[in-house]
Write a structure and sequence with these properties.
mainly alpha, single chain
């Protein structure tokens, strides 16, 4: 089990993976907010 021998490397790898995924989620949230803003302008006033 290589990770038991080098736990620091596992932490670095996992941290990198989490940063990438977090960035992707942030971009998705931003895109959805923009989409909601566009939709709010298209809805007719009641």
């Amino acid at each position: 089990m290589k990770h038991q021998e080098h736990p620091e490397q596992l932490v670095k790898e996992r941290t990198t993976e989490l940063r990438i995924v977090n960035g992707q989620l942030q971009e998705e949230m931003t895109a959805r907010r923009r989409g909601q803003g566009v939709l709010s302008f298209k809805t007719p006033n009641a």
